[in-house]
Amino acid sequence: MHRSPDTLFALPGEPPHEQVSMFCDAGSGLRTIIAIHSTARGPAFGGCRVWSYASDADALRDALRLSHGMSLKNALAGLPFGGGKAVILKPVETPERASLFQAFGKRVDMLGGRYITAEDVGSTTDDMRAVQRNTAFVSGIPRDGSFGGDPSPKTAWGVFLAIDEAVRHVMKRPLDGVTVAVQGLGSVGMALCRHLHAAGARLKVSDLDQDRVRYAQSTFAAMPVDSDQILATPCDVLAPCALGGVLNASSVPRVAAAIVVGASNNQLLTPADGDALHARGVLYLPDFLVNAGGIISAAREYLGTGDEAEVMREIGMIRQRVAELLERSGGQAPFRVAQQWAEALVG
Ligand code: NAD
Q1: Ligand 1 pocket, CB under 6 A
Q2: Are 58 and 14 in contact (CB under 8 A)?
Q3: Is residue 203 domain-shared with residue 341, that is, in the same domain?
Q4: Is residue 13 part of a domain?
Q5: Do residues 282 and 325 both lie within one domain?
Q6: Ligand 1, closest atom to CA 206?
Q7: Which residue minimizes the CA distance to atom 4 of ligand 1?
Q8: How far apart are CA 107 and CA 131, in angstroms?
Q9: What pLDDT is stored for residue 12 in this prediction?
Q10: CATH number at residue 124
Q11: Residues 246 and 267: beta-carbon distance below 8 Å
């Protein structure tokens, strides 16, 4: 029997999922989609994004793409977790945040541990404390004041190591004097700038928030670049640290960097955009490999094993994985090789 590919069970181009749950709560204004791509390695672990989507379908697509990415990320990082992600559709009226996240926590709890949540774009450590009132399946909350908590600094450190390794591989030199363009000066982007500046890199930066740009200018001697120019600005390394889908048919031909490595999830709008970068001789390292520092920290915190030094050692493995990927890739596009590598580990 012929079936249209556009069914609720298979959005075109999106990977099949084990479970997708949608919850509403009129009292708090909560509308959330929790996507569980795979629990083959263990409970699905991934953050909770709060965003204003143009349509419910866009929210669903984002949840599906992000949760699939979490499967790849968790597997490649060797974590005993599957992939999942939640999106909360930002209410039109400004919500009472604590009740919104408490309501979300209740829904996470209803999944009985199949999904574990944490921070993502639009949610904070305080929000996770509210989630924790109604479920134990949450991470990203400092438990003893020093270990765990906000994953962003850990993400930034992993991305920094990946950039350093890529520069050594492609440019045969250390970061000192290399020009890095950072798109997005949020929790991860700003911390990344700090590491890059300390390593002697020259920075070009953009953010929609001009206060952040001014801070980077005064603190890291960064050169400001218009937001619509940052992807095309001449530089050695481009680090997308804002939103997904920025590497697309319109931006890829304009990329002037030799290397693209950043924190944003799902930077490629489509795999063809990664192929186009590769064909242009640009080294693109996939986000699910390089931005795993945050989930490594959140996972350790959740498991309650190890300590800060152990987390940093695990994040340090990102450098080795980048080196191994570059060796495995030969002439192939590294993001394709990484995807196959990760898919085999997802189970
Ligand atoms: P954030 O919300 O703190 O920062 C994002 C920044 O990007 C904001 O300052 C925003 O103003 C800016 N921005 C948005 N659109 C922009 C544009 N068009 N041009 C320039 N700047 C723009 O988010 P974050 O936590 O720093 O995360 C950044 C990216 O990294 C996201 O895609 C996120 O999914 C991904 N990521 C984050 C973590 C983490 O630990 N926080 C882990 C893995 C992946």
Answers
A1: 120-121, 151-152, 155, 183-189, 206-209, 212, 227, 241-244, 263-265, 291, 294
A2: no
A3: yes
A4: no
A5: yes
A6: 20
A7: 186
A8: 10
A9: 76
A10: 3.40.50.10860
A11: yes
**234: alpha, beta or left, given left = phi > 0 and alpha = psi -120 to 50?**
beta
For residue 150, the ligand 1 atom closest to its alpha carbon is: 40
Does any domain span residue 315? no
Statement: residue 83 has pLDDT above 90: yes
Q: How far apart are the first and last CA of the chain?
A: 30
Domain count, the chain: 2
Same domain, 277 and 197: yes
| 87 in any annotated domain | yes
* C-alpha 185 to ligand 1 mean position (Å): 7
Supply the pLDDT for residue 36. Answer: 98
Same domain, 212 and 287: yes
The pLDDT of residue 94: 80
The stretch 43-71 carries a mean pLDDT of 96
Q: Are residues 191 and 273 in the same domain?
A: yes
The verdict on pTM exceeding 0.85 is yes
List the residue whose alpha carbon is closest to atom 39 of ligand 1: 152
Per the annotation, where are the binding residues for NAD(+)? 184-189
Structure tokens at 229: 């120019």
Active site residue 85: yes
Does residue 99 share a domain with residue 214?
Answer: no
- What is the distance in A from the centroid of ligand 1 to the CA of 100? 22
Q: What is the CATH number of the domain that holds 158?
A: 3.40.50.720
As annotated, the binding site includes 184-189
> What is the whole-number distance in angstroms between the Cα of residue 164 and the centre of ligand 1?
20
Write down the mean pLDDT value for the chain. 94
Q: Are residues 102 and 171 in the same domain?
A: no
Q: pLDDT, tens digit, for every residue of 181-220?
A: 999 999 999 999 999 999 999 999 999 999 999 999 999 9
**Ligand 1 centroid to residue 187 C-alpha, Å:** 7
The catalytic position among 85, 90, 154, 204 is 85
